[in-house]
Amino acid sequence: MSASPDPVRIAAVGDVHMGPDIRGRYRPALAALPEEADLLLVAGDLTQHGLVEEAEVFAEEFSDLGVPVITVLGNHDYHADLELKIRKVLSDAGITVLEGEGVVVPTPAGDVGVAGAKGFCLGFSGRRASYFGEPEMKAFTGHGQHSAELLRKAFQGLDAPVRVGLTHFSPVVDTLSGEPPEIWAFLGNYLLGDAIDEAGADLAIHGHAHAGVEKGITPGGVPVRNVAQPVIRTAYRVYDVVPGGTP
Amino acid sequence: MNDVQLARRLERALIDDERTHEMGVRIVVAGGRIVASGEVASEERRQAVLAVICEADPGLPVSDQLTLASPDAPPPSGHERIIPPEH
Ligand SMILES: [Fe+2]
Ligand SMILES: [Fe+2]
């Protein structure tokens, strides 16, 4: 009988909301990352107010960790209309920012493909915004639909034995449990879940729902993990995924 | 404006104000005072929350029950084995 294959070790956290006032809080906790994981995913809301100086603090904390760091931005990172500058600060520091793109990371246990997009609001099946009526409503709904198209696009051609969806907004309602149901439509988008299922992903990582719970599952059975830091209350979680599914 | 309306207005101010953008602060107005609770990341962010509440000037005393996130690095956590679906 052969030993079961080694897992790919995927570390993840979200919603660290960095600013100069909490400079230095994460870096000591990330020192052991290369022993624990093969890559780190950060699920958006990297900054508190979407400022470049906050992105610089994030870059100080999360660059040169000894493993690849792959992020998506969150709604807070867009607040000051500086998202392009924030992306540049991060990429100059060697941190990958995905929006409608995928990246393949080689690890000792095999390649990991990460498809990333921020996502957006919209809601969930039967309780979603419709592309109907006023232009403002169509813009809101259209952006939600487009965000899912970006995630779908990110998975296209992403060839790796383990594939992960990385978003800020939630693809399922499960992980929103604990948030008031009235705001679920602002926390996620079921079309993101559809994109994850259609792609046949192995794992979906998101943030944004600070008062939600960690674990959920898509209708197609893909494990979903809400890694918002106020939910996991740790520097990062590590998810071990065996290439090729269960042995 | 009743107590519930005031509480919602203050929570909205804490989300919208450029100094705070805090989503996780809960405001309750009861017994003639404003109670602020929830976790903030630093002393600076706590002071900003209190400043925004005071500037809204509801004329009621403010009870600060905010908690500060630990200034230390967050603790490590274990590994979870993920079982992907059969594709
Ligand atoms: Fe957040
Ligand atoms: Fe967010």
TrEMBL record, chain A:
State the PANTHER family in the record.
Answer: PHOSPHODIESTERASE YAEI (PTHR31302:SF31), TRANSMEMBRANE PROTEIN WITH METALLOPHOSPHOESTERASE DOMAIN-RELATED (PTHR31302)
Show where the Calcineurin-like phosphoesterase domain sits.
Answer: 9-211
List the SUPFAM superfamilies.
Answer: Metallo-dependent phosphatases
**Superkingdom in the source lineage:** Bacteria
Keywords tagged on the record: Hydrolase, Metal-binding
| Alphabetized InterPro entries for the sequence | Calcineurin-like_PHP, Metallo-depent_PP-like, Metallophosphoesterase_sf, UCP008292
> What is the protein name stated in its UniProt record?
Metallophosphoesterase
UniProtKB/TrEMBL annotation, chain B:
Q: Where is the composition biased (Basic and acidic residues)?
A: 78-87
Residues of the BON domain: 2-70
This protein's superkingdom?
Bacteria
The protein here is known as: BON domain-containing protein
Region span, Disordered:
66-87
Q: Which Gene3D superfamilies match?
A: 3.40.1520.20
